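Help needed: design a sequence for this.
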């Protein structure tokens, strides 16, 4: 562990206030903040964190606490354990701490998780981590990305009742294979022990309802937190520059935001507060257990946010009242990113809950592989069906040519539709990351398809999608060895 941390035992046994809120259906607010950049004075950042926490603690109208992200605002940032240690040692079970796999081995990440728990931070959300803007493929391939599924599995194996794990999910996907690829991976993470989920940032509430309905249609009723944003113009520009992986800002919404900004920055801010109010109310009516709001970085803003959210929660008596206001506010614009517009269900946002049976799942053709890909698939299955039982370098040339083999430490082809998961530059093995682009492109580059969507497509066509939800696939240890970590 590079932080030289001392274990600080926390004796707040048995209580998890955040989990209690989820279990009892108490709508909560998480205020998002992140580990500061390394070139910031840690004491100053810690002071700001404490002030934010004090403001959150003083809120009485709804449970309010912090969600602290790791390597999200800044890639070169202070160790998350050092940063959160600034918070008062009591009632740390109210907060949620993210743990990023960016540049971190599984052992290091597990150690960080255990230190968090020893300090009383019991609600942990592992994430695989993003690609740093400007990174080339070699940079990404030279770095560890410990997959969230891997840490969830390691935490589950510890069988420590003090840990309450969550998972991130990005429902803002608009092609059939991207939607289902993400949902299969979500279910795998829930199967690996995640007890709640937090969505990616996004504005399309039909997609949030789709997520709830999809899980309910499968009999899964896990609590979910929706992640919202108090947008500023520089953040909007960051999205437009492609520096916020997985965040979809359709042209129609961009035009509205630009028009709001044209009046004045005060007008823009007022419009964002109103949007937050409406979205908070919508999330509650759609069955979310709370919201996590980014962009609230001072106690003053936190207090305004709380007032607005509380007013929004009281403003609408029925779903239909809220829906009318939401539609009026957005002018009924299409929030899908043209030309991609796949939703799992018909008639989303027509009702608060499915009327009787779940609505029809949308019919959308999974792109059928061409004849060349079909023959390749057949040959790979025929030739490599026992590759996991063979030495990794056996038939290397053939595997390289036909399956994109990267000579991993142990072959996993039979678990990944005979397509090498190391084609993913992050080396993720269990499904797509949240950063896939709207049309199915890889987070690293628009011109290459996400390999996990290709795997999902083959699984859907072969009716073998179950294995994408059930089978844990080990990440290759190749990078860890390169970095001197066994
Ligand atoms: S291949 Fe898929 S999972 Fe891997 S980095 Fe690209 S988008 Fe993410």
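Sure. Designed sequence:
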């Amino acid at each position: 562990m590079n932080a030289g941390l001392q274990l600080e035992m926390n004796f707040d046994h048995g209580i998890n206030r955040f989990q209690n809120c989820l279990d009892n259906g108490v709508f909560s607010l998480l205020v998002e903040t992140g580990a500061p950049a390394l070139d910031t004075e840690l004491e100053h950042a810690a002071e700001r964190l404490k002030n934010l926490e004090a403001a959150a603690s003083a809120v009485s109208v709804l449970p309010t606490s912090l969600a602290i992200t790791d390597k999200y605002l800044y890639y070169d940032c202070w160790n998350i354990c050092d940063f959160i240690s600034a918070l008062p040692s009591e009632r740390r079970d109210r907060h949620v701490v993210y743990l990023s796999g960016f540049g971190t081995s599984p052992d290091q990440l597990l150690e960080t998780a255990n230190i968090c728990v020893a300090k009383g931070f019991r609600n942990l959300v592992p994430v695989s981590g993003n690609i740093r803007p400007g990174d080339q493929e070699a940079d990404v391939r030279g770095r560890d990305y410990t997959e969230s599924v891997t840490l969830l599995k390691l935490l589950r194996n510890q069988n420590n009742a003090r840990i309450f794990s969550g998972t991130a999910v990005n429902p803002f996907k608009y092609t059939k294979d991207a939607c289902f690829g993400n949902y299969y991976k979500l279910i795998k993470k829930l199967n690996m022990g995640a007890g709640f989920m937090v969505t990616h940032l996004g504005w399309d509430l039909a997609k949030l309802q789709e997520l709830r309905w999809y899980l309910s249609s499968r009999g899964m009723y896990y609590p979910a937190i929706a992640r919202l944003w108090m947008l500023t113009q520089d953040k909007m520009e960051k999205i437009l520059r492609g520096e916020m992986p997985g965040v979809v800002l359709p042209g129609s919404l961009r035009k509205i935001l630009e028009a709001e900004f044209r009046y004045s920055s005060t007008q823009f801010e007022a419009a964002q507060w109103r949007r937050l109010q409406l979205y908070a109310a919508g999330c509650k009516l759609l069955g979310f257990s709370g919201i996590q709001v980014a962009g609230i970085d001072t106690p003053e803003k936190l207090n305004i946010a709380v007032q607005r959210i509380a007013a929004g929660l009281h403003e609408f008596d029925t779903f239909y009242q809220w829906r009318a206001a939401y539609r009026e506010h957005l002018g009924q614009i299409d929030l899908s990113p043209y030309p991609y517009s796949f939703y799992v269900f018909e008639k989303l946002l027509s009702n608060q809950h499915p009327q009787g049976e779940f609505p029809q799942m949308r019919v959308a053709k999974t792109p059928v592989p061409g004849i060349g890909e079909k023959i390749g698939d057949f040959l790979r299955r025929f030739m490599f069906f026992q590759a996991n039982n063979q030495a990794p370098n056996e038939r290397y040339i053939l595997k390289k040519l036909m399956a994109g083999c990267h000579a991993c430490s142990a072959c996993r082809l039979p678990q990944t539709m005979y397509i090498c998961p190391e084609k993913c530059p992050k080396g993720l093995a269990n499904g797509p990351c949240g950063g896939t682009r709207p049309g199915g492109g890889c987070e690293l580059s628009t011109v290459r398809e996400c390999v996990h969507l290709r795997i999902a497509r083959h699984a859907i066509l072969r009716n073998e999608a179950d294995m994408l939800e059930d089978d844990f696939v080990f990440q290759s240890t190749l990078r860890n060895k390169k970095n001197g970590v066994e």
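Strands lie at 28-34, 64-69, 96-100, 123-127, 164-169, 196-201, 224-229, 290-294.
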